[in-house]
Specification:
The chain is of the alpha/beta class and about 475 residues long. The chain contains 14 helices and 18 strands. α6 runs parallel beside α10. The chain is globular, with a radius of gyration of 22 Å. It starts with a helix and ends in a 29-residue tail after the last helix. Bound molecules: calcium ion (2 copies). One calcium ion binds near residues 245, 432 and 434.
Length: about 475
Protein backbone atom coordinates (compact mmCIF):
# COMPACT_ATOMS: atom_id res chain seq x y z
CA UNK A 1 0.00 0.00 0.00
CA UNK A 2 2.79 2.43 0.90
CA UNK A 3 4.42 1.73 -2.43
CA UNK A 4 1.14 2.41 -4.28
CA UNK A 5 0.69 5.73 -2.53
CA UNK A 6 4.19 6.86 -3.39
CA UNK A 7 3.77 5.85 -7.01
CA UNK A 8 0.48 7.69 -7.38
CA UNK A 9 1.70 10.83 -5.62
CA UNK A 10 4.97 10.72 -7.51
CA UNK A 11 3.15 10.58 -10.83
CA UNK A 12 0.99 13.52 -9.86
CA UNK A 13 3.88 15.63 -8.66
CA UNK A 14 5.83 14.90 -11.83
CA UNK A 15 2.97 15.92 -14.06
CA UNK A 16 2.31 19.01 -11.95
CA UNK A 17 5.86 20.25 -12.40
CA UNK A 18 5.90 19.29 -16.06
CA UNK A 19 2.55 20.98 -16.68
CA UNK A 20 3.99 24.38 -15.90
CA UNK A 21 6.71 23.94 -18.51
CA UNK A 22 4.70 23.07 -21.61
CA UNK A 23 1.36 22.24 -23.16
CA UNK A 24 -0.66 20.35 -20.62
CA UNK A 25 -2.04 17.73 -23.00
CA UNK A 26 1.20 15.81 -23.06
CA UNK A 27 0.92 15.29 -19.31
CA UNK A 28 -2.82 14.82 -19.12
CA UNK A 29 -2.60 11.05 -19.06
CA UNK A 30 -0.91 11.26 -15.67
CA UNK A 31 -3.78 13.08 -14.01
CA UNK A 32 -6.72 11.24 -12.49
CA UNK A 33 -10.23 11.93 -13.66
CA UNK A 34 -12.42 13.46 -10.95
CA UNK A 35 -16.04 12.49 -10.44
CA UNK A 36 -17.77 14.98 -8.18
CA UNK A 37 -21.10 13.66 -6.94
CA UNK A 38 -23.33 16.22 -5.22
CA UNK A 39 -26.59 15.25 -3.54
CA UNK A 40 -29.28 17.67 -2.41
CA UNK A 41 -30.75 17.40 1.09
CA UNK A 42 -29.68 13.83 1.93
CA UNK A 43 -29.09 13.58 5.68
CA UNK A 44 -27.55 10.60 7.48
CA UNK A 45 -30.47 8.31 6.62
CA UNK A 46 -28.28 5.97 4.62
CA UNK A 47 -27.38 2.36 5.27
CA UNK A 48 -23.74 3.26 5.83
CA UNK A 49 -24.38 6.14 8.28
CA UNK A 50 -27.28 4.48 10.08
CA UNK A 51 -29.39 7.57 10.77
CA UNK A 52 -32.66 5.67 10.34
CA UNK A 53 -33.21 1.92 10.76
CA UNK A 54 -35.29 1.64 7.57
CA UNK A 55 -32.96 3.61 5.29
CA UNK A 56 -32.16 1.52 2.24
CA UNK A 57 -29.29 2.80 0.10
CA UNK A 58 -27.34 -0.27 -1.05
CA UNK A 59 -25.83 1.37 -4.12
CA UNK A 60 -24.61 4.42 -2.26
CA UNK A 61 -23.24 2.13 0.45
CA UNK A 62 -21.47 0.04 -2.19
CA UNK A 63 -19.91 3.12 -3.75
CA UNK A 64 -18.64 4.68 -0.52
CA UNK A 65 -17.33 1.29 0.63
CA UNK A 66 -14.80 1.47 -2.20
CA UNK A 67 -12.95 4.16 -0.28
CA UNK A 68 -13.19 6.25 2.87
CA UNK A 69 -16.53 7.24 4.40
CA UNK A 70 -16.51 10.10 6.90
CA UNK A 71 -18.92 9.37 9.73
CA UNK A 72 -18.60 12.76 11.44
CA UNK A 73 -18.77 15.09 8.43
CA UNK A 74 -20.79 18.29 8.43
CA UNK A 75 -21.89 20.99 6.05
CA UNK A 76 -20.36 24.45 6.32
CA UNK A 77 -23.85 25.96 6.33
CA UNK A 78 -27.21 24.17 6.68
CA UNK A 79 -28.83 25.54 3.52
CA UNK A 80 -28.27 24.82 -0.17
CA UNK A 81 -26.76 28.07 -1.36
CA UNK A 82 -24.28 28.93 1.41
CA UNK A 83 -23.22 25.29 1.76
CA UNK A 84 -22.43 24.97 -1.93
CA UNK A 85 -20.92 28.45 -2.28
CA UNK A 86 -18.50 27.66 0.57
CA UNK A 87 -17.63 24.20 -0.70
CA UNK A 88 -17.01 25.42 -4.26
CA UNK A 89 -15.13 28.60 -3.33
CA UNK A 90 -13.10 27.23 -0.42
CA UNK A 91 -14.29 30.19 1.64
CA UNK A 92 -16.52 30.28 4.70
CA UNK A 93 -19.77 32.24 4.85
CA UNK A 94 -18.24 34.78 7.20
CA UNK A 95 -15.50 35.43 4.63
CA UNK A 96 -17.77 35.82 1.57
CA UNK A 97 -20.95 37.12 3.23
CA UNK A 98 -22.94 34.28 1.59
CA UNK A 99 -24.82 33.09 4.68
CA UNK A 100 -28.28 32.29 3.38
CA UNK A 101 -30.16 31.12 0.29
CA UNK A 102 -31.16 34.74 -0.30
CA UNK A 103 -27.53 35.90 -0.64
CA UNK A 104 -26.49 35.49 -4.29
CA UNK A 105 -23.14 33.86 -5.07
CA UNK A 106 -22.71 35.14 -8.64
CA UNK A 107 -21.22 38.54 -7.95
CA UNK A 108 -19.53 37.82 -4.59
CA UNK A 109 -17.55 34.95 -6.17
CA UNK A 110 -16.97 36.74 -9.47
CA UNK A 111 -13.20 36.85 -9.03
CA UNK A 112 -12.70 33.78 -6.84
CA UNK A 113 -10.78 30.78 -8.14
CA UNK A 114 -13.62 28.35 -7.51
CA UNK A 115 -13.07 24.61 -7.57
CA UNK A 116 -14.30 24.15 -11.15
CA UNK A 117 -12.35 27.20 -12.34
CA UNK A 118 -9.22 25.80 -10.73
CA UNK A 119 -9.53 22.44 -12.45
CA UNK A 120 -10.24 24.18 -15.75
CA UNK A 121 -7.16 26.36 -15.41
CA UNK A 122 -5.11 23.28 -14.66
CA UNK A 123 -6.06 21.64 -17.93
CA UNK A 124 -9.12 19.61 -17.01
CA UNK A 125 -12.19 19.25 -19.16
CA UNK A 126 -14.80 20.57 -16.74
CA UNK A 127 -18.35 19.28 -17.18
CA UNK A 128 -21.28 19.91 -14.89
CA UNK A 129 -24.86 18.74 -14.71
CA UNK A 130 -27.84 19.09 -12.39
CA UNK A 131 -27.44 21.04 -9.16
CA UNK A 132 -23.87 21.94 -8.28
CA UNK A 133 -24.24 25.53 -7.16
CA UNK A 134 -27.62 26.68 -5.88
CA UNK A 135 -30.23 28.03 -8.22
CA UNK A 136 -32.57 26.68 -10.84
CA UNK A 137 -32.51 29.57 -13.27
CA UNK A 138 -29.25 28.57 -14.93
CA UNK A 139 -25.78 29.84 -14.16
CA UNK A 140 -25.23 33.48 -13.15
CA UNK A 141 -23.55 35.60 -15.84
CA UNK A 142 -20.29 35.75 -13.90
CA UNK A 143 -20.02 31.94 -13.94
CA UNK A 144 -21.19 30.99 -17.43
CA UNK A 145 -17.68 30.41 -18.76
CA UNK A 146 -16.67 28.15 -15.88
CA UNK A 147 -17.86 24.93 -17.50
CA UNK A 148 -16.93 23.49 -20.87
CA UNK A 149 -20.40 22.00 -20.89
CA UNK A 150 -23.35 22.23 -18.52
CA UNK A 151 -26.31 19.85 -18.59
CA UNK A 152 -29.64 21.13 -17.31
CA UNK A 153 -31.64 18.08 -16.25
CA UNK A 154 -35.08 19.65 -16.56
CA UNK A 155 -37.95 19.25 -14.14
CA UNK A 156 -39.69 16.28 -12.57
CA UNK A 157 -43.21 14.97 -13.16
CA UNK A 158 -45.93 16.51 -11.00
CA UNK A 159 -48.94 14.83 -9.44
CA UNK A 160 -52.39 15.73 -10.78
CA UNK A 161 -53.30 17.48 -7.53
CA UNK A 162 -51.76 20.57 -5.98
CA UNK A 163 -50.94 18.89 -2.68
CA UNK A 164 -50.99 15.12 -2.11
CA UNK A 165 -50.46 15.51 1.63
CA UNK A 166 -53.26 18.04 1.93
CA UNK A 167 -50.94 20.48 3.72
CA UNK A 168 -50.98 22.95 0.82
CA UNK A 169 -47.52 24.17 1.80
CA UNK A 170 -45.99 24.58 -1.66
CA UNK A 171 -43.27 21.98 -2.25
CA UNK A 172 -43.37 20.80 1.37
CA UNK A 173 -45.29 17.80 0.08
CA UNK A 174 -44.94 14.09 -0.60
CA UNK A 175 -46.65 11.20 -2.33
CA UNK A 176 -46.37 8.62 -5.10
CA UNK A 177 -46.24 9.46 -8.78
CA UNK A 178 -47.70 7.36 -11.51
CA UNK A 179 -44.59 7.92 -13.57
CA UNK A 180 -41.53 5.96 -14.64
CA UNK A 181 -37.94 6.40 -13.53
CA UNK A 182 -37.10 7.56 -17.04
CA UNK A 183 -39.32 10.63 -16.62
CA UNK A 184 -37.34 11.87 -13.61
CA UNK A 185 -34.73 14.60 -13.99
CA UNK A 186 -32.10 12.71 -12.03
CA UNK A 187 -32.53 9.74 -14.39
CA UNK A 188 -31.69 12.01 -17.34
CA UNK A 189 -28.78 13.42 -15.36
CA UNK A 190 -27.21 9.98 -14.94
CA UNK A 191 -27.81 9.13 -18.60
CA UNK A 192 -25.93 12.28 -19.57
CA UNK A 193 -23.08 11.58 -17.11
CA UNK A 194 -22.80 7.99 -18.33
CA UNK A 195 -22.44 9.19 -21.92
CA UNK A 196 -19.69 11.58 -20.94
CA UNK A 197 -17.87 8.84 -19.02
CA UNK A 198 -17.94 6.62 -22.11
CA UNK A 199 -16.55 9.26 -24.47
CA UNK A 200 -12.88 9.73 -25.18
CA UNK A 201 -11.53 13.04 -23.95
CA UNK A 202 -8.08 14.40 -24.67
CA UNK A 203 -8.00 16.06 -21.27
CA UNK A 204 -8.55 14.60 -17.82
CA UNK A 205 -12.19 14.90 -16.78
CA UNK A 206 -13.69 16.88 -13.94
CA UNK A 207 -17.27 15.63 -14.10
CA UNK A 208 -19.70 17.17 -11.60
CA UNK A 209 -22.99 15.31 -11.24
CA UNK A 210 -25.51 17.15 -9.07
CA UNK A 211 -28.57 15.13 -8.00
CA UNK A 212 -31.62 17.21 -7.09
CA UNK A 213 -33.37 14.50 -5.06
CA UNK A 214 -34.12 13.99 -2.23
CA UNK A 215 -34.93 17.71 -2.20
CA UNK A 216 -38.63 18.44 -1.73
CA UNK A 217 -41.18 17.72 -3.04
CA UNK A 218 -40.92 14.00 -2.30
CA UNK A 219 -42.67 12.84 -5.45
CA UNK A 220 -41.14 9.67 -6.88
CA UNK A 221 -42.62 6.70 -8.75
CA UNK A 222 -45.08 4.67 -6.74
CA UNK A 223 -42.89 1.58 -6.48
CA UNK A 224 -40.58 3.42 -4.08
CA UNK A 225 -43.47 4.29 -1.77
CA UNK A 226 -44.68 0.69 -1.95
CA UNK A 227 -41.25 -0.37 -0.72
CA UNK A 228 -41.99 1.35 2.65
CA UNK A 229 -45.56 0.45 3.70
CA UNK A 230 -47.10 3.16 5.86
CA UNK A 231 -47.89 0.82 8.74
CA UNK A 232 -44.23 -0.17 8.95
CA UNK A 233 -42.83 3.36 9.16
CA UNK A 234 -40.75 4.19 12.22
CA UNK A 235 -40.68 7.83 13.27
CA UNK A 236 -37.40 9.42 14.35
CA UNK A 237 -36.67 9.07 18.05
CA UNK A 238 -37.78 12.32 19.69
CA UNK A 239 -38.29 13.72 23.18
CA UNK A 240 -41.45 15.75 23.57
CA UNK A 241 -39.97 18.41 25.86
CA UNK A 242 -36.64 18.54 24.01
CA UNK A 243 -36.87 22.28 23.35
CA UNK A 244 -37.32 23.14 27.04
CA UNK A 245 -33.58 23.59 27.57
CA UNK A 246 -32.91 25.25 24.21
CA UNK A 247 -32.46 29.04 24.29
CA UNK A 248 -35.01 31.22 22.46
CA UNK A 249 -32.66 31.74 19.49
CA UNK A 250 -32.63 27.97 18.95
CA UNK A 251 -36.38 27.63 19.42
CA UNK A 252 -36.86 30.28 16.73
CA UNK A 253 -34.81 28.13 14.35
CA UNK A 254 -36.86 25.04 15.26
CA UNK A 255 -40.11 26.93 14.77
CA UNK A 256 -42.32 24.23 16.34
CA UNK A 257 -45.46 26.22 15.56
CA UNK A 258 -44.68 26.04 11.83
CA UNK A 259 -43.96 22.86 9.88
CA UNK A 260 -44.14 20.56 12.88
CA UNK A 261 -47.53 21.69 14.04
CA UNK A 262 -48.87 21.38 10.48
CA UNK A 263 -47.44 17.88 10.02
CA UNK A 264 -48.65 16.54 13.35
CA UNK A 265 -52.11 18.11 13.29
CA UNK A 266 -52.70 16.73 9.80
CA UNK A 267 -51.40 13.28 10.77
CA UNK A 268 -48.70 13.47 8.11
CA UNK A 269 -45.60 12.50 10.10
CA UNK A 270 -45.58 8.85 9.00
CA UNK A 271 -46.35 9.90 5.43
CA UNK A 272 -43.47 12.35 5.41
CA UNK A 273 -40.98 9.79 6.72
CA UNK A 274 -42.25 7.36 4.10
CA UNK A 275 -41.79 10.04 1.44
CA UNK A 276 -38.21 10.79 2.44
CA UNK A 277 -37.25 7.11 2.63
CA UNK A 278 -38.88 6.51 -0.76
CA UNK A 279 -37.13 9.48 -2.37
CA UNK A 280 -33.79 8.37 -0.95
CA UNK A 281 -34.46 4.93 -2.41
CA UNK A 282 -35.11 6.47 -5.82
CA UNK A 283 -31.89 8.49 -5.55
CA UNK A 284 -30.03 5.33 -4.60
CA UNK A 285 -31.18 3.63 -7.77
CA UNK A 286 -29.74 6.47 -9.83
CA UNK A 287 -26.44 6.23 -7.92
CA UNK A 288 -26.48 2.56 -8.86
CA UNK A 289 -26.80 3.48 -12.54
CA UNK A 290 -23.91 5.92 -12.16
CA UNK A 291 -21.83 3.22 -10.49
CA UNK A 292 -22.49 0.88 -13.42
CA UNK A 293 -21.39 3.60 -15.82
CA UNK A 294 -18.19 4.17 -13.84
CA UNK A 295 -17.34 0.49 -14.07
CA UNK A 296 -18.27 0.20 -17.75
CA UNK A 297 -16.15 3.25 -18.59
CA UNK A 298 -12.89 1.58 -17.61
CA UNK A 299 -11.90 4.80 -15.82
CA UNK A 300 -12.41 3.60 -12.25
CA UNK A 301 -8.77 2.84 -11.47
CA UNK A 302 -7.72 6.34 -12.56
CA UNK A 303 -10.64 8.23 -11.06
CA UNK A 304 -10.89 10.18 -7.82
CA UNK A 305 -14.48 10.20 -6.60
CA UNK A 306 -15.98 12.44 -3.98
CA UNK A 307 -19.59 12.08 -2.85
CA UNK A 308 -21.30 14.58 -0.58
CA UNK A 309 -24.71 15.97 0.28
CA UNK A 310 -25.07 19.68 0.95
CA UNK A 311 -26.47 19.35 4.51
CA UNK A 312 -28.69 17.23 6.73
CA UNK A 313 -32.45 17.31 7.27
CA UNK A 314 -34.78 17.21 10.28
CA UNK A 315 -38.01 15.21 10.16
CA UNK A 316 -39.49 16.30 13.48
CA UNK A 317 -36.45 16.03 15.76
CA UNK A 318 -36.63 19.04 18.11
CA UNK A 319 -40.03 19.71 16.51
CA UNK A 320 -38.08 20.97 13.52
CA UNK A 321 -38.32 20.18 9.82
CA UNK A 322 -35.98 20.85 6.90
CA UNK A 323 -32.39 22.10 7.34
CA UNK A 324 -31.86 25.67 8.61
CA UNK A 325 -30.64 24.73 12.11
CA UNK A 326 -27.40 23.97 13.92
CA UNK A 327 -28.14 20.53 15.40
CA UNK A 328 -26.64 17.21 14.35
CA UNK A 329 -29.47 16.10 12.08
CA UNK A 330 -29.29 19.35 10.10
CA UNK A 331 -25.51 19.41 9.69
CA UNK A 332 -24.40 15.76 9.43
CA UNK A 333 -24.32 14.47 5.88
CA UNK A 334 -22.57 11.85 3.78
CA UNK A 335 -19.00 12.49 2.65
CA UNK A 336 -16.76 9.91 0.98
CA UNK A 337 -13.55 9.95 -1.03
CA UNK A 338 -12.43 7.14 -3.29
CA UNK A 339 -8.87 7.67 -4.49
CA UNK A 340 -7.02 4.76 -6.12
CA UNK A 341 -3.65 4.25 -4.47
CA UNK A 342 -4.60 6.39 -1.48
CA UNK A 343 -7.82 5.12 0.09
CA UNK A 344 -8.51 1.52 1.04
CA UNK A 345 -11.93 -0.08 0.61
CA UNK A 346 -14.13 -0.15 3.67
CA UNK A 347 -12.37 2.70 5.48
CA UNK A 348 -14.42 4.68 8.00
CA UNK A 349 -13.06 7.98 9.29
CA UNK A 350 -14.50 9.21 12.57
CA UNK A 351 -12.50 12.45 12.76
CA UNK A 352 -14.65 15.61 12.59
CA UNK A 353 -14.51 17.45 9.26
CA UNK A 354 -16.63 19.94 7.39
CA UNK A 355 -17.05 20.30 3.66
CA UNK A 356 -14.49 23.03 3.35
CA UNK A 357 -12.06 20.10 3.13
CA UNK A 358 -13.40 19.02 -0.26
CA UNK A 359 -11.70 21.65 -2.43
CA UNK A 360 -8.17 21.25 -1.04
CA UNK A 361 -8.47 17.47 -0.83
CA UNK A 362 -9.49 17.11 -4.48
CA UNK A 363 -6.69 19.43 -5.58
CA UNK A 364 -4.26 17.46 -3.43
CA UNK A 365 -5.42 14.09 -4.77
CA UNK A 366 -5.20 15.31 -8.36
CA UNK A 367 -1.70 16.66 -7.83
CA UNK A 368 -2.77 20.27 -8.35
CA UNK A 369 -1.62 23.16 -6.22
CA UNK A 370 -4.03 24.21 -3.47
CA UNK A 371 -4.78 27.92 -4.01
CA UNK A 372 -3.70 30.11 -1.12
CA UNK A 373 -7.19 31.55 -0.55
CA UNK A 374 -8.64 28.15 0.34
CA UNK A 375 -9.54 28.04 4.03
CA UNK A 376 -10.04 24.32 4.65
CA UNK A 377 -7.51 21.52 5.13
CA UNK A 378 -6.79 18.56 2.88
CA UNK A 379 -7.90 15.35 4.58
CA UNK A 380 -5.33 13.25 2.74
CA UNK A 381 -3.66 12.21 6.05
CA UNK A 382 -7.00 10.75 7.20
CA UNK A 383 -7.51 8.98 3.88
CA UNK A 384 -4.13 7.31 4.22
CA UNK A 385 -4.58 6.55 7.92
CA UNK A 386 -7.96 7.24 9.59
CA UNK A 387 -6.21 7.16 12.97
CA UNK A 388 -3.89 10.06 12.08
CA UNK A 389 -3.68 12.88 14.57
CA UNK A 390 -6.43 15.34 13.69
CA UNK A 391 -7.02 18.41 15.84
CA UNK A 392 -9.39 20.16 13.47
CA UNK A 393 -13.10 20.57 14.21
CA UNK A 394 -16.16 20.99 12.01
CA UNK A 395 -17.51 24.54 11.99
CA UNK A 396 -21.06 25.21 10.82
CA UNK A 397 -22.52 28.68 10.30
CA UNK A 398 -26.22 29.50 9.94
CA UNK A 399 -26.79 33.17 9.40
CA UNK A 400 -24.35 35.80 10.54
CA UNK A 401 -23.30 35.20 14.12
CA UNK A 402 -24.76 31.72 14.65
CA UNK A 403 -22.30 28.82 14.76
CA UNK A 404 -21.92 25.20 15.79
CA UNK A 405 -18.61 23.51 16.49
CA UNK A 406 -18.35 19.71 16.38
CA UNK A 407 -15.42 17.66 17.53
CA UNK A 408 -15.24 13.93 18.23
CA UNK A 409 -17.42 14.08 21.34
CA UNK A 410 -19.11 17.45 21.59
CA UNK A 411 -21.38 19.87 19.79
CA UNK A 412 -21.18 23.47 20.96
CA UNK A 413 -23.66 26.00 19.57
CA UNK A 414 -23.41 29.73 20.08
CA UNK A 415 -26.09 32.03 18.69
CA UNK A 416 -25.65 35.66 17.69
CA UNK A 417 -27.16 36.81 21.00
CA UNK A 418 -24.52 34.83 22.96
CA UNK A 419 -26.86 32.04 24.11
CA UNK A 420 -25.44 28.53 23.98
CA UNK A 421 -26.01 24.80 23.76
CA UNK A 422 -23.58 22.01 24.53
CA UNK A 423 -24.15 18.30 23.89
CA UNK A 424 -22.00 15.30 24.78
CA UNK A 425 -22.34 12.77 21.97
CA UNK A 426 -20.72 10.01 24.00
CA UNK A 427 -23.92 9.55 25.96
CA UNK A 428 -26.41 11.87 24.24
CA UNK A 429 -26.47 11.07 20.51
CA UNK A 430 -29.87 12.77 20.07
CA UNK A 431 -28.67 16.02 21.66
CA UNK A 432 -31.43 16.01 24.25
CA UNK A 433 -29.58 17.45 27.25
CA UNK A 434 -28.12 20.93 26.95
CA UNK A 435 -25.06 21.10 29.22
CA UNK A 436 -24.07 24.67 28.35
CA UNK A 437 -24.99 26.00 31.80
CA UNK A 438 -23.05 23.34 33.72
CA UNK A 439 -19.93 25.09 35.08
CA UNK A 440 -17.84 21.92 34.90
CA UNK A 441 -18.02 22.07 31.10
CA UNK A 442 -16.77 25.65 30.81
CA UNK A 443 -13.35 24.46 29.56
CA UNK A 444 -15.02 22.52 26.72
CA UNK A 445 -16.99 25.59 25.65
CA UNK A 446 -13.84 27.69 25.90
CA UNK A 447 -11.85 25.25 23.75
CA UNK A 448 -14.49 24.82 21.05
CA UNK A 449 -15.34 28.52 21.11
CA UNK A 450 -11.89 29.35 19.75
CA UNK A 451 -13.11 28.08 16.35
CA UNK A 452 -15.85 30.74 16.22
CA UNK A 453 -14.79 33.89 14.35
CA UNK A 454 -14.65 37.24 16.11
CA UNK A 455 -15.29 39.17 12.91
CA UNK A 456 -17.76 38.30 10.16
CA UNK A 457 -18.30 39.72 6.70
CA UNK A 458 -21.49 41.70 6.09
CA UNK A 459 -24.23 39.86 4.25
CA UNK A 460 -23.57 39.66 0.51
CA UNK A 461 -25.75 41.56 -1.88
CA UNK A 462 -26.11 41.31 -5.63
CA UNK A 463 -28.23 42.38 -8.56
CA UNK A 464 -30.68 39.49 -8.40
CA UNK A 465 -31.88 39.86 -4.84
CA UNK A 466 -30.89 42.12 -2.01
CA UNK A 467 -29.74 40.55 1.22
CA UNK A 468 -32.28 40.28 3.98
CA UNK A 469 -31.50 42.17 7.17
CA UNK A 470 -32.03 39.26 9.48
CA UNK A 471 -30.32 36.05 10.44
CA UNK A 472 -33.55 34.28 11.32
CA UNK A 473 -33.98 30.86 9.83
CA UNK A 474 -37.59 31.57 8.97
CA UNK A 475 -36.67 33.85 6.09
CA UNK A 476 -35.45 30.84 4.14
CA UNK A 477 -37.29 29.39 1.22
CA UNK A 478 -35.69 26.10 0.20
CA1 LIG B 1 -29.83 21.32 -0.20
CA1 LIG C 1 -33.40 19.21 25.19
Amino acid sequence: MIHCIKTFVGACLTCCVAASAGPFVAQAADKPDVLFIAIDDLNDWTGSLGGHPQASTPNLDRLVARGALFTNAHCVAPACNPSRAALMSGLRPFTTGIYMNSHPYGLPLKDTLTLNRHFMQQGYRVLGGGKIYHGRGGLPDEHQADWHEYFHRGGDPRPPVKSISGLNMAHFDWGPLDASDEEMGDYRLVSWAAERLMQDHDQPLFLAVGFVKPHLPWYVPRKYFDRFPLDSIQLPVVKDDDLDDVPPAGVRMARPEGDHRAVVSNKQWHHAVQGYLATNKFLDGQIGRLLEAIDRSGRADRMVIVLWSDHGWHLGEKQHWRKFALWERATRAPLAFIAPGVTRPGTRVDAPVDFLCIYPTLADLAGLPVPSHVEGPSVRPLLVDPQSDWDDVALITHGRGNHAVRDRHWRYIRYADGSEELYDHRNDPHEWTNLANDPQHAPVKQRLGTAIPSEEAPEATGPAKSAKKTTRAKIETP
